[in-house]
């Protein structure tokens, strides 16, 4: 099968239960904490050969930062090393420099690389080449692409349920957590080979290579300006002054969370921010009568929260109820505001769904949905459609394989 005639393998028939993989074959290695330990780990990795299977554990939901609290690396001929990048009390870039030098020798294999690459880059660790097994699974047309599902499907092994959502900033790390962490890279090298074979059979090897290189070299995503608008439950706030109180409470909470490196929700939950903005308390007693604020921790911070509420109430330029976003409005409004654009979007989505079924790749991996919305909103029927569409896609980062597939389909839908 060629790249011009891709397809997917059929869903496998129900087979034997996956063979449980409860512990690493060579046992759980000791954690390398101090500079001399990390240098020894680098020497061990250097003695191996081929690609590096890499994973990182963070403390999302517990810490403000997105830093890595444990790094797992495996290489053929060397085995697995576990590295603690935070507990040695020295500059982590300097301490991890020997590891960075070794890792610059070969391809990195990660599962869901976009989650781990930023925290690894903070430590001076950047891949010279990349293979993302989760993204490869998506390109192969798999419905389930989490690590356990892909290992079971392609290798016939069952990974033990893990501790991925645990507080990895905890020290010392429990033995069960370290076992889980080591298993995350135990068969990643074999998984890479297995999914690569599937993609080769489907004629998608080059597509995957383009996607991996794009992911490896992509600039960090710019977050939306008004992050406080992501406060859960903010839709309940219907007036601008109360919205100003939400913004002020969110900002004060964020400053405290950053200073203490604690997840903001553990300082004050979103629900409490919204409740306070709606109630607009004027005194400590009124504030502590609200849910959450009556607890001992929040009582100690009551004056801080009350001052934030007062600052929001006094804001002479409260925020608008909805944030002005660049680009087209939400698609649900198109039928009233610009019905011709709504019709174009419907036609484009229908054509892309058919293409997705044909090549066995999810539509969101064929082309960014945001690009499709922008194209359909701004489209004018001036001249040949396909060259303009392909130029638009190229200017906005679509890879050659995507442009080759999607360009003619969108031209047919819009032309």
Automatic annotation (TrEMBL):
It comes from the Bacteria. Residues 1-25, 314-338 are annotated as: Disordered. Pfam families: DNA_pol_A_exo1, DNA_pol_A_exoN, HRDC. Coiled coil: none annotated. InterPro entries: 3'-5'_exonuclease_dom (IPR002562), Exo_C (IPR041605), HRDC-like_sf (IPR010997), HRDC_dom (IPR002121), HRDC_dom_sf (IPR044876), RNase_D-like (IPR051086), RNaseH-like_sf (IPR012337), RNaseH_sf (IPR036397). GO terms for molecular function: 3'-5' exonuclease activity; nucleic acid binding; nucleotide binding. GO terms for biological process: nucleobase-containing compound metabolic process. Residues 239-319 form the HRDC domain. SUPFAM superfamilies: HRDC-like, Ribonuclease H-like. This is Ribonuclease D.
């Amino acid at each position: 099968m060629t790249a011009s005639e891709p397809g997917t393998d059929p869903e496998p028939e129900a087979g034997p239960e996956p063979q449980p993989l409860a512990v690493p074959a060579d046992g759980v290695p000791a954690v390398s904490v101090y500079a001399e330990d990390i240098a020894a780990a680098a020497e061990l990795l250097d003695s191996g050969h081929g690609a590096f299977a890499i994973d990182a554990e963070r403390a999302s939901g517990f810490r403000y930062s997105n830093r890595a609290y444990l790094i797992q690396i495996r290489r053929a001929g060397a085995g697995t090393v576990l590295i603690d990048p935070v507990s040695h009390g020295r500059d982590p870039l300097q301490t991890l420099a020997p590891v960075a030098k070794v890792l610059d020798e070969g391809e990195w294999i990660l599962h869901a690389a976009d989650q781990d690459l930023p925290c690894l880059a903070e430590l001076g660790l950047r891949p010279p080449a990349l293979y993302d097994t989760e993204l490869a699974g998506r390109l192969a047309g798999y419905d389930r692409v989490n690590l356990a599902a892909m290992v079971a499907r392609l290798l016939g092994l069952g990974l033990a349920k893990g501790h991925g959502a645990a507080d990895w900033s905890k020290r010392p790390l429990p033995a069960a957590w370290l076992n889980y962490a080591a298993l995350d890279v135990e068969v990643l090298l074999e998984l890479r080979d297995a999914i690569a074979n599937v993609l080769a059979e489907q004629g998608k090897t080059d597509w995957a290579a383009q996607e991996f290189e794009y992911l490896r070299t992509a600039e960090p995503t710019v977050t939306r300006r008004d992050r406080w608008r992501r406060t859960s439950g903010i839709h309940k706030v219907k007036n601008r002054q109360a919205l100003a109180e939400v913004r002020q409470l969110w900002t004060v909470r964020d400053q405290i969370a950053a200073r203490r490196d604690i997840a903001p929700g553990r300082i004050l939950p979103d629900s409490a921010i919204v409740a306070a903005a709606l109630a607009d308390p004027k005194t400590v007693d009124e504030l502590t009568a609200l849910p959450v604020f009556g607890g001992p921790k929040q009582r100690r911070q009551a004056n801080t929260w009350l001052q934030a509420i007062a600052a929001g109430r006094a804001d002479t330029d409260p925020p608008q109820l909805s944030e002005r976003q660049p680009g087209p409005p939400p698609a649900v409004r198109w039928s009233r505001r610009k019905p011709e654009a709504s019709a174009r979007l419907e036609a484009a989505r229908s054509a892309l769904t058919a293409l997705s079924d044909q090549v066995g790749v999810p539509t969101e991996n064929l082309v960014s949905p945001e690009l499709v919305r922008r194209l359909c909103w701004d489209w004018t029927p001036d001249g040949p459609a396909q060259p303009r569409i392909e130029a638009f896609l190229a200017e906005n980062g679509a890879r050659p394989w995507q442009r080759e597939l999607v360009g003619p389909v969108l031209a047919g839908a819009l032309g």
